[in-house]
Amino acid sequence: MREHGDAPEDEQEIQTVPEDEPVSPDSESFDSDSGMRRIEVGSVFCSECGTQNGASATICHSCGRLLDPLAQAQRSTAPVRKLHGVVVATVTGISVGAVLLAWMTGLSMHLEVADVMRVEGERLVRVEVLTSNADLSQVFGLALAFGLAGLVASIVFAGRYLREVVLGATAGVFAQFVLWLFMARAAGGHLRSDLWIAGDGFVLRGPAPILLTQLLLLMLFTAILFAFAGWIAQEQITGKATCVQCHSRYSLRPRPPVRCPKCDAEQDRDGVQWPWVMLVALGCSIAFALVVVFLREPLGFALECHGQMSKGCIDARGDSSFTIFVTAMTSRDFTFWAVDQWRYLGVTAPLMLGAPLLLTFLVKRGSRASAGALVPINWLLATFVVMIALGDLGGSDAGFIFLMRMQVLALFSWGAVGVVGVLIGDKLRYRKGSAYLDEIDDD
């Protein structure tokens, strides 16, 4: 029996909740009889984890993601993130300190001025050039110090502070440039002249602005590469990353969030992914160096001939496709180089095609922009490798001019095949269905 005015037993009372009143997840909104959760008016569901939150909640109580419906509008007007000054100071201190320490202890390259005789027309002319007697550790040792600066920043601060690493390394690069300028002026020369670097087993010769700029860029790229390697290693080991906006740690598992759960700042930037570009450029440069150093004679594009000449050297003397440069001559013997520039371009073209093609599959966002930026960087690093590997050939004026002309031709040919690699990789990504992010960016 039921009293007058009571609701029937088979009827359930429906409670209405105002939209402005928060609903606790622990309230009696779960129907134990039906095993289903009733959706109350005024509740908000998290788009990241699907948890039901109260209407007045600003962040998800489960994963911490912002629930503000105006977050998308705020992102477009959000201020540019501030630089992490401690990271900049750390990288600057290590790189500048390494430059000064190497200069004072003689562990870096020192510049001097020497007079050399050159033939201009039918007469000898005395010319002042910059010289440096340095081994490989003195020439490239500072690049490792810059790499150490980037690695320390990645380990200590655990965030992908790319701009901070670049600024700090740039300060070190500027300090090294000032020291070179000071050494050249103190010796009575200037940085506009030629530079001869002679070491054990190698000779590097060319205009000082070109050679020194390549060394400075190598220092900067090494800092970025080591920092990126440190970030990847730490994230894979710890399973956590640091937001560069609010400097808070968040989990990367089971899958990395696109935005920071605390401040909602985007973590994966569009455009050129410079860390990936530098990593692929380093791998491509190593492969290119192995080809030029160890496979140049088997592939037949550069032959160094002296003493008992091989069959290839004998054939090269009568082949019009080879250019011959005599680098040493005695009363009994002579040494010469035979270089086929077109075969050199053809042999190395597949490497310049494959590098941007590979990069399009390594990055999810900005694959086309990243692969396009890789093409000129590969050329710059390959030119630096050629000037070292074929340094004996570049010891003469004619040989150096020939190498530079060959690299100018490589700029156009490698650039063409690099663009083809970008287009092929982009096409394959669309067929695979992994290029939707680039399509969204274009829209």
TrEMBL record:
Region span, Disordered: 1-34
Residues annotated as transmembrane: 83-104, 139-158, 165-188, 208-232, 276-295, 342-363, 370-390, 402-424
This protein's record includes keyword Membrane: yes
Keywords: Membrane, Transmembrane, Transmembrane helix
Designated name of the protein: Double zinc ribbon
Biased composition (Acidic residues): 8-31
Keyword presence, Ubl conjugation: no
Taxon lineage: Bacteria, Pseudomonadati, Myxococcota, Polyangia, Nannocystales
